[in-house]
Design a protein that fits this description.
single chain; alpha+beta; nine-stranded mixed beta sheet; three-stranded antiparallel beta sheet; 16 strands
């Protein structure tokens, strides 16, 4: 009986220099996978359980296998510890790798605390594919985001062909009607910051059309790095509602950070 020869690993060079681990690099360059992004403060993460659930659900959907939270905690805690950055911006990725998947963790400088600078948005007819996933390969949203900045805006606002608002290119958006936050329901990613705020402030989730935007009193965008007021969507202008932004900031500040790894010696994680 003949057997098939073992596959020959890819040979990859970057600027003329062979890659240290061609197999791992080829996996990353394949672009099929998902991730979550978070801010770490003193070894803790707001909404860590939501991040772990997101990773597990997406891994099951894409790769047909679980990604246990205990494994993520271990890998994340190890990377944060090795980086020497107890305050940091961290990402956990799951990449396709043959019949299984690889998990990668990146740890970078922490995003500044506090509210972000006011944003001006421009609406574009574009929805991310499989928008419920925080997946890799975000060419479209990067393309439209860069085009928005070249046109003098800060970010693109993604919409359906008939003008239903979905999300920002890299954020969720909420509108303030004077009573509740209104979160658009066109295909979007339910961000962890969005979920934390919606659970703590009066909120409704419903379709929002572009023609409705003049009827709202204020708006803001949110992601793992910041929460920032929106001062315009194309020709529709909004004031910065300081009272609203104060409530939003206070709600987010009230979320307790969850420890990445246990430190009380009993082997548990809170």
């Amino acid at each position: 009986m003949t057997t098939s020869p073992a596959p020959v690993p890819a040979h990859i060079e970057i600027d003329g220099v062979p890659a240290a681990d061609p197999g791992a690099l080829a996996t990353v360059m394949g672009g099929y996978g998902h991730f979550t992004a978070m801010q770490v403060r003193d070894g803790r993460v707001k909404g860590l359980g939501l991040h772990l659930d997101r990773l597990d659900r997406a891994t099951r959907e894409l790769f047909g296998a679980p990604l246990p939270g205990a494994r993520v905690r271990e890998l994340l805690g190890r990377a944060v510890g090795a980086s020497g950055r107890r305050d940091s911006s961290a990402r956990v990725y799951a990449y396709e790798h043959g019949a299984r998947f690889l998990v990668a963790v990146t740890v970078r400088e922490a995003a500044p605390d506090g509210p972000g600078a006011p944003r001006r948005l421009t609406a574009v007819d574009y929805l991310r594919p499989a928008a419920h996933l925080k997946h890799l390969g975000g060419f479209g949203q990067r393309y439209h985001g860069d085009a928005a900045r070249r046109a003098g805006f800060d970010e693109a606002l993604l919409t359906t062909p008939d003008g239903e608002v979905a999300e920002g290119a890299v954020t969720n958006i909420a509108f303030w009607d004077g009573t509740s936050l209104v979160w658009p329901t066109a295909p979007h990613l339910t961000g962890v910051t969005m979920a934390l705020l919606a659970a703590r402030l009066p909120s409704v989730h419903r379709p929002v059309k572009l023609q409705e935007l003049p009827g709202f009193r204020a708006a803001f965008v949110a992601n793992s790095r910041e929460i920032a007021p929106v001062t315009a969507v194309d020709e529709v202008a909004y004031p910065v509602d300081e009272a609203l932004m104060g409530r939003v900031s206070a709600a987010y500040a009230s979320v307790p950070g969850e420890k990445i790894v246990a430190s009380d010696g009993d082997g548990s994680a809170d």
